[in-house]
Design brief:
seven-stranded mixed beta sheet, globular, alpha/beta, homotetramer, Rossmann fold, 2 domains
């Protein structure tokens, strides 16, 4: 069987390496190139085999049917344009083309696949959502679309991420001895750049709510847990009904009675969601908990869902066990 | 110098062992007895030296000037009564005598020391606060006492604790291989027993607010971080002013510009607090973050503050560096 | 395609659950039954789906073409006999039938697959090697078979294992807060039961050497690293030659220039091996380092290799990526 | 009481910060200066309080009665000379002046305090031992001094260290997500620079033995465990007698029946040692296990023991609980 050639820009980071692994296991894709700035000490191996990185400038962009860009925020947009000009479709994992990221020259679909499947299918370029935004929005979308979020209310999102979310960057504060046995909040005061991304998307889904988002750094390698407190117009008789109905048949969304935890989802392209009514509060309020792997459903896995759609392949190709 | 004899009931658990260590280092206290149900495999050593446990029934309660009870919730109250009858003062670390815990025969001061110092000083028995409640209430008390919490609003507390908070109990879900690389919420739907405790105390401090409290289990041994979102009547000009003023001169409260993390407080009897106004929300809202060591300021250290007061000693004796 | 029915005895422990996952992904096997003593708190799910355990007494042994026994040491042998009488082939993961384990009624092949492939192929029952023994013997076998180990010398094996090696047992010393940030040796004085197993097997491979084996408990979930110091009759010109030659073409053995670490092998049925001559010592001596996943190549994965051979399937079925 | 001024060169690394904490708690010392190259992201706080670092060039070396140098290997020696010329006594924590480190202009005592106490007491400059060497040599010294190590035999040392042993250096391979859930050997083939240090010292203690030393990197922050296999001329009737006799009365050495682990020693200036005869080997052989905190007894704590001696203070000042 003929395999479609794909390239990965920025392949030496955590998301980039996850993409390489997904491409290596994909039944219909072959790796055309992988680029990385040389970095001393980087151990890059894919499924046990070493990978040779090219400089981005040498990458044969036109040879690829599709290019994944896992370049850093701020550096990605020009390469997306170059790849598109060279005739490739593009999934951009950076924030550069996402809603809320400033004024892009040309808006592209926001690839929260379960919410924007049709727009993705017809696109040439897709902006892959941020990891925190993926967890939060998959939890909130059924309520927003259903008009269930109390207008004018404040939605409070507390999320915690494994350290791969901070990238493969040799920062002193990410050393093992600094992160182990610690836990910290960051981006205080609602200052994380995913807030604008989530606010913009929630608005398009019909919600008129304020967002408070506090991210935390966990002493684990992978995974995001988002704990969301959301005032609602009424508590549904079956509190899980909004998610069960909205995500019926979705291969990568799991609606669960029990609270999901990181172990339920790491190394899988899954979002696991539960919800509960909150007792003892006057305003009807739901607690929604979502777990994803920040590198899979929160990055490379969702990027592959989008790539499959862009290339006319089965959306689940290369993503199920 | 003559040392006052103290006893520890339930000394083989994590809080009990922390108490033993504090007593061993205390300049004015000596251990009269320590009790524990024999437990196979329990490694109990204090500052490198093994400790022999007696059965509670054999403990010479009357020999102690003060008894700490670190017995499990539901088992502690009768032993508190027995120790009191034998003439000892008591600090009870269980939930049995705390507000919100049902209908105690006889209310005793709630030993959140910085808030209830005078009541503690005159008491014979003190109910030591829960670990989550300590972190949350130290964060909220200056706002509650100052009338700054928006009446009728919902205060959202997300807290995460190290596993020693669950006690030295051989539960399968607390095994290393189950906890490492995981993170989970529990007591969903506002069902944690500290909610009633916090609600009762906040009410006495003058707040009319609803509470949403979601605890989480961290893959660390010690420490609690509470991230609190609290609607306020107005944002203070200096967002830290309520805490700086209320806790001026407090030896165990640190008000910080930067976000506190577990490493700032573990193995210390400290609560470290910061606050920020939340940008981009219509209702004026503060973000308050509090870090404590669940076994020290959240249990044994605060118990020692209270014991020092009950015994007429300096409140900081045995607790600094 | 018709799938062969297999059963798993003792399926709720770590090795048992790993077996269930391997069966679920196997192209030619289907789960006929899984047994477990009911255990409160056990979270048993396979690839995201819950599994219902039967009591061993209810298991339809005769319905299975092959039975894996992951029962505890000392309990397994009678069930192996029962399964064999019922007509099933058996892979026994316990120590009961291994060499060095006392005097079995009837010796069965020792399933260190790469070393005993032909014996396994013709058997009805196979004793699956212990995890430490697998790592150590795969490292030593090429030297032993080649007559390279100095006669009468002492081979020193230091090995460290993740805590799943101790089983899914709620022991206080395996709680997260006891294991994290710790590292300890155990079974001091050469007292681990794998010593007899390794000594017996090395003897059959032609080595006349004494063994010193010290196991250690690592604060990780999975993986074994064995660091072996072995006096040799001569240092090979290419120090890796003995392994490269002996394991040429082996799908699950990786001979590497660089030191292998746990990350290279976890969740894979791989043994990764390197060797170096030791500088500055008078007696020619090699350092051999072997990494495996204790639950995969050290237990369930190797058991599946053996099961594939017993059932006439491709040895790698269900085991590659 | 008048306090003696001391300075710390290279105070922003892990050993340097540990020194700052020890100075802060010392009853007879005061910090005169602390130097560090400015490093973005370095969080330097001592006992909860921030410390301001000077450049080494600005440090008033002559104001200090004693200078600790925690500068990197290769950079320290010239600063030791400068501090000595300025009239300060010096404890050098680098490898620059240790035996086996090449040809120092002027040999200085090797500050393995329990072994070289008198030499240290009369010195102006002391070379503080390496962390691995401290653990290994404290384990071997009683055997070497007693002539118990089999002449010509090979002593095998396997040691594992927490990551602070690698320093506060933003290397990609020391990031949390690279170290967690991993374990690796390094400096293969007897190539670690502590081998020469240990060999030189063991020689001066009278041993004629070869050394094989394999260090490993543990996913913990602190602590070293050394597991030593040592052929002996005869097994002592009481296997612990050599250590009990040699270290009788030593305040910082603990000889234990049970295997020591990292938890027994972290954050304490203690070396904890046990020994066992090895069963089943023809040559009489002992297994010696030593645990220390690499940053305390293996670096800053032992440096403080030496500083106390150099300054005529009680050796234990500032070091006991």
């Amino acid at each position: 069987m003929h395999k479609l050639p794909v390239g990965v820009l920025g392949a030496s980071g955590y998301a980039g390496r996850e993409l390489l692994a997904l491409v290596a296991r994909h039944p219909a894709l072959a790796l055309a190139f992988a680029t990385a700035r040389t970095r001393e000490g980087a151990r890059a191996s894919v499924e046990g085999r070493p990978v040779t990185f090219a400089a981005a400038e040498q990458a044969p962009l036109g040879d690829a049917a599709l290019v994944f860009s896992a370049l850093p925020h701020g550096e990605s947009a020009p390469w997306v344009a170059r790849a598109e000009e060279a005739g490739a479709k593009v999934v951009d994992l950076s924030a550069d083309l996402r809603p809320g990221a400033g004024a892009p020259a040309k808006p592209v679909p926001y690839g929260l696949t379960e919410i924007a499947r049709d727009a993705v299918r017809g696109a040439r370029v897709v902006a892959n959502p941020g990891c925190y935004a993926t967890a939060s929005l998959l939890g909130l979308a059924p309520l927003a679309e259903g008009g269930l979020i109390t207008p004018g209310a404040t939605v409070t999102i507390n999320a915690a991420s494994g350290v791969t979310g901070a990238g493969f960057t040799p920062r002193p504060d990410l050393l093992f001895a600094e992160v182990a046995e610690d836990f910290r909040a960051y981006a205080l005061g609602n200052s994380h750049h995913h807030v604008a991304e989530m606010r913009a998307v929630l608005g398009t889904l019909g919600a008129d709510a304020d967002l408070v988002f506090t991210p935390h750094l966990l002493p684990v390698s992978r995974g995001i847990l988002a704990t969301i407190t959301v005032p609602v117009t009424a508590i549904p008789t079956d509190p899980l009904a909004p998610w069960r109905e909205r995500y019926a048949g979705e291969p990568f969304i799991e609606v669960a009675e029990e609270a999901p935890s990181l172990r339920d989802v790491v190394r899988r392209n899954a979002a696991r969601i539960t919800a509960r009514p909150l007792a003892g509060v006057r305003a009807p309020t739901l607690q929604v908990i979502v777990a994803i792997d920040n590198l899979v459903k929160g990055a490379a896995g969702q990027a592959m869902q989008n790539a499959n759609l862009l290339l006319g392949l089965d959306e689940t190709a290369g993503l199920l066990a």
